[in-house]
Amino acid sequence: MQLPSPMTAKEIAEIAEGQIRGNADVSVTSIALDPLKATKDDMALVTDRQILKFIDKCQASIMVVPHDLDYSKEGQTVILVKRPKIAIQKLCQKLAPPRFYPEKGIHPTAVIDKTATVSESACIGPYVVIGPHSKVGDKTIIMSHTSIGGKVEIGQDCLIYPSCLIADYTQIHNRVILQQGAGIGSDGFGYTTARPTNAEIIYVGGHSSHLSEERNPHIKVPQIGRVIIEDDVEVGSYATIDRATIGNTIIGTGTKIDNLALIAHNCKLGKDCIVIGTSAIGGSCTIGDRSILAGGVKIKDHVVIGKDVVLEGLAGVMRDVDDCEIQVGIPATNAREQIKMHANMRRIPRINDDVRELKDRVRELEAIIAKLNLAEAK
User: Fold this and answer.
1) CB–CB of 263/275 below 8 Å?
2) Residue ranges of E strands in 2-119
3) What are phi and psi of 295, to 5 degrees?
4) How does DSSP assign 257-303, residue by residue?
5) Within a 10 A sphere around the Cβ of 33, how many other Cβ atoms?
6) What are 62-108's pLDDT values in tens digits?
7) Which residues are catalytic?
8) Do the Cβ atoms of 229 and 171 come closer than 8 Å?
9) Where are the alpha helices (DSSP H) in the chain?
């Protein structure tokens, strides 16, 4: 990636809050996307522990590395940082190109209900729709083609990217970011039937003779709750957060939700949680503070996840999880237990061979004993 202008090691260290080892005046013109393919003109962010094993192959003139790394090479300048990801964050923040947001005020093509209240310092882009009795707070930016229903409350300093859908009665607090296409407040997936379904009968062990071929239509359960998104939450592109059947679906302060995630009705996510892409949380689940759901995690409805839990990628969670657990697999279990289980599974072929050998030896011993018994009988 080309830098806007050449940067010296001293300038980079000031931004990254790092300590220089080497020539502070050396300059670079670009950032290497792959540290192992860097050239003399590059700065390399060598923070991945796997890449650190091959750091001597990096040809960059300037390298940003963890502070505890004992490394030096003639002709290279090293910048030592305590928290590499924070250093990257600061550099990206400094180098970020300007984004194109709508100007302050309401674009002429926006459709604002006469009963809605929009702050004078808000920015409302082209073709935005804001429904009756909704409120938009100070300095909030709402970009093109976003549709906002009735009695929606949006706080201050929010950033809502294009084509977001925010349904009636949703509450969005301050400094919330909705990436493009996020859907907030859609109906929860709630249906019932006038009589027990075949699935219900099978689930409780009913006999096949009790099943019916007649239609048993799904009756929609009205979703009369709402969604509350607290301060400093970010919701990724095309993620969906359903309104509650009764009460509230709540996303706690500081929680970050990745693209294409599903948060079903009546879920309650704690503070500073991470929900990574394509994860799906069933209805009425509770997720404790600071818990992490890696990519593709699926959680059964009504499950309670404790605080500081880590659910590894593709985990299928079927039951409650205690605080501070790390779980993996389908069904999800304690990571250490899962590793032991897989280790034992790898031993099964050898155990089978051992069992066959033991069986053969037992048969041989039985044959010898039978011959001895026959001889004694004679």
Assistant:
1) yes
2) 2-8, 19-21, 27-31, 42-45, 62-66, 77-81, 105-106, 111-112, 117-118
3) -55, 135
4) E-TT-EE-TT-EE-TT-EE-TT-EE-TT-EE-TT-EE-TT-EE-TT-
5) 11
6) 999 999 998 888 889 999 999 999 999 999 999 999 999 999 999 99
7) 265
8) yes
9) 9-16, 49-52, 84-95, 198-203, 335-377
